[in-house]
Amino acid sequence: MRKKFFFENLTRILIFTLLPTILITLIFIAVLLPSEEKILQEENHNKLALIQENMELLLNDSNKVMNLLNLPTYANSIYQILEADSLDYINFRTLTQTSSQLNAIVNSRSYIDSIYVYIPNSRGKYLTSGAHIYTLDGFVDTNWLEICGGNSPYRLIRRQATIYPGIKTSQDYLTVVQENNKGHVVAVNIVVSYFKRLFQNLNLKNGEIIMFVDNGTLLLSSSQDRHIPEILEKLDNGDHSHTPMEIGGMLVFKTHSAGTGLDFISAVPKKEIYSNIRRLMALSVIAGGVCIILAVLFSIRYAVNVSRHLYSILDLMEAAISHQELPPVKSHDNSLYSHIITNMIQTFTQRDFLQVSLNEQRFQAMTLELSALQYQINPHFLSNTLQMIDFEILRMAKRPTAANEMIQQLARFLQYSLSSPNADVSLEQEIQATGYYTSLMSRRHTDQLEVLWDIDEEVLAYPIPKLILQPVIENSIKHGMQSQDRPLHIRIQAGPYEEKGLRILVKDDGIGITPENLKKLQSTLPDFEGFQESHIGLQNLFRRLQLRFSPSQCSILLDGQPEKGFSVEIRIRDLNTGLQR
């Protein structure tokens, strides 16, 4: 039975440890493949979009020149220059201005080598951006117009040409040709080496090819790969602009530019494009394998320890049931189990007894502390003494004075605070008694204190402990009026909070408090260290509220800034909860 229990326990542990590891590994691989493929496709489409944008900018350069030729006066001026045997002053100025405009475009684009402008004329001449006038059958760039001919208004021609006198070596150009309905032709000669730099900036993967194709004819490619003819042949059979196509071990992406009429193709070797995925999968498998091995070792160790502990407990229980001598408890880590078995009843009995005793002690401590928080002075003795003082002042002054009024207010406040300290009062009674205190403070601080009340009538009947307003107002007077020349204003607000609660806010416009002291004061509120005869304080108030209500039902929030006042907000969530009276 014990062996069976061991293997069953080991199997359960292995299932709970291995199953999450295997599932996480499989989910990771299942999520990784689609996301990586999507990223790779977006990366290739972004590259093709960048190249397409560059090509459309090149076409825009020819549009700028063609827009000038569409102006009748501008085109007529160039025509006069091309038809003239020799240039007079006016034609020379026109030539200079025209060349300057063409050169402005050439100089603003590092990839443009030169611009040709041709307007049909009887002499077969054309104008260049360098202010040169050549003939179509001359010795410079011979027959370029014929080579670049075609029926479409926009054409791109890849050609080898010599376009400067005295230079016999031909260069590789991509010529952008634009022609209007009047036969005016603009040719922008772009240096092919510009595209090589563009390919380098794209950070192409190893073996990746970028191609520009015009109606099935290859214009440019980033390399001379043997797969290019096969790719062009198979791509002609359909449009694969949105879905990559696998051709000869290459993953091919294709986009089409309506503006240039070109197809932009990216071909990446599959082994290169999926290299990151394979590495991540290998790492995932290795990490999963390590986790599985560790899980198996941990499961075996854990099953052995648990079985040994349970076997010890079983031996103890069998010995106890059969009234035999308990086996000795070994000194290793399973001693806890034998202790549980031999002392179970005693432990639970002692715990219940201690719990009852502790609850009684807590109740007594709370009652004593709540009583200690109220001054234990005989209210009758104090009231009679104040009456005697009041009569003596009245007898000597022969009429009521301000001192009589102050003594009466003090007597009422002390009688309110010292009678029945454990009983709740209504908020209205608390406000009335606090009014006696604020009147006394206003007389003490003449013209330096103003108390404003803003009380919602809905909460006047709410039951609350005594003296929760006076300590807060005393705190504002004591700390807010220090070194202050202007009067101190204290506003007391009370209103409902949540469904059955009460919110009280005491806010002054005194000297305020620094952020450091505010944080320290808020954190030390729960640290009540006993009753203070000279001052009840915010800690005392917080402790009284926690004794009356549960800690989760009441809170005190402090706020303030230097020179902007200080506020104390009391929140009681449910006035029907708390200690039973």
Protein architecture, described:
The chain is of the alpha+beta class and 581 residues long. Helix content is 51%, strand content 19%. The protein is built from 15 helices and 18 strands. The chain has helices at residues 2-69, 72-83, 89-108, 144-147, 193-201, 228-235, 270-273, 275-321, 335-372, 379-397, 402-418, 427-444, 470-480, 515-524, 537-548, and strands spanning 112-118, 125-128, 133-135, 154-161, 171-179, 185-191, 209-214, 217-221, 245-247, 250-256, 263-269, 425-426, 449-455, 463-464, 488-497, 501-508, 554-560, 566-572. Strand 17 (554-560) and strand 18 form a beta hairpin.
Question: How would the blueprint of this fold be written?
Answer:
Blueprint (H helix, E strand, L loop, with lengths): L1 H68 L2 H12 L5 H20 L3 E7 L6 E4 L4 E3 L8 H4 L6 E8 L9 E9 L5 E7 L1 H9 L7 E6 L2 E5 L6 H8 L9 E3 L2 E7 L6 E7 H4 L1 H47 L13 H38 L6 H19 L4 H17 L6 E2 H18 L4 E7 L7 E2 L5 H11 L7 E10 L3 E8 L6 H10 L12 H12 L5 E7 L5 E7 L9
Helix pairs in contact: 1-8, 2-3, 8-9, 10-11, 11-12
